[in-house]
Amino acid sequence: MRPENLDNKTIPLRFFVITFLWSWVLWLPFVLGGLGIWAWDESLRSSLSMPAIILGAFGPGVAALYSIQSLQGRSAVRPFLRSFLSFRFGWKVWLIIFGAMGIANFLAWYLPGFFGFERLPMLLPTILVFPIYWLVMVFFGGGQEEIGWRGYIMPYLESRYGIWLGNIILGIIWTLWHVPLWFIPDSFQVFMPFPAFLIGCIGLSFFFSWVVKASNNKPLSALIAHGTSNAMLPVFPSLVLALDVFQVHFWILEILYLIIGVVAVMSLKKQ
User: For residue range 243-261, what is the model confidence (pLDDT) as tens digits?
Assistant: First the structure.
């Protein structure tokens, strides 16, 4: 579904309602456990929290499908899903996705070492598993969010507010949607400084918007870009898995994401 199918100034608010309901309801029991409000069996909580986090991350996609079916009818769902089947982005888009995400993560991992900070060891058992891990990240480890974020709601926000403000709004909403994860002990968000995460989400919103446009509006490109950014994290770790430490690597990474995103959108204006 695209803005031209409805009034360009009409934002389908039901998308945000379903997105937050789906995800936050699934995450709520683990938030209550993290806050000490609900006493979970520790082993049960640990075994269920990650599946719940992953399932909750399908919220934007579920909301997109619900919105399309309820606003356009069931016949519109299949063409929307079919739009995600094309990998033909052009080699330059593939190169920029891997290059930009790889370089940003490498620099965030490498540069602090010159100032006395530890270069964290790779978290993957071997780099040979990266292709499999990358596929998992694209379809289950974050990339699937883009069915809703960039695949569905981004065109509405950009149509009404423009590419700059539209993606700032989307980046803020995207950040707020993650908030419950800061209260789930098994999530990586507990180690992430929230302001840095917000900066990174806005930057990646800009970059993913560029990716979709540069790929001739093939929304699968956003899944690839999001999955790639997440897949780089254990290769060039930017998080110290400890509380009450200054996450210098992560701050650098999120600022680099913002710079990359701004440059990407500025390049659109020159085309």
Answer: 989 999 999 999 999 999 9
What the block records as the tokens of 100 is 């930009």
pTM of model > 0.90: yes
Report how far apart the first and last C-alpha atoms of the chain are (Å, whole number).
Answer: 26
pLDDT in tens, 36-56: 898 888 888 888 999 999 999
Return the closest-CA partner of residue 4 out of 166, 217, 155, 163. 155
Helix or strand run (H / E) with residue 14 = helix 13-34
The type of residue at 102 is G
**What sign for the dihedral angle of Cα 118, 123, 126, 131?**
negative
- Token digits of residue 211: 């990716």
**How many Cα atoms within 13 Å fall on the side-chain side of residue 249?**
24
CA distance 173 to 262: 18
Half-sphere exposure of 125 (CA within 13 A, CB side): 3
Asked if 185 and 50 touch (Cβ cutoff 8 Å), the reply is no
Phi/psi for 72 (5° steps) reads: -115, -20
Query: Which DSSP string do the residues of 102-123 spell out, in sequence order?
Result: HHHHHHHHHGGGGGT---PPPS
Cα separations in angstroms, 242 against 25, 176, 192, 238 = 27, 23, 10, 12
Measure CA 139 to chain center.
Answer: 12
Vertex 172, ends 225 and 62: CA angle to 5°?
Answer: 60
Residue 211: left (phi > 0), alpha (psi -120 to 50), or beta?
alpha
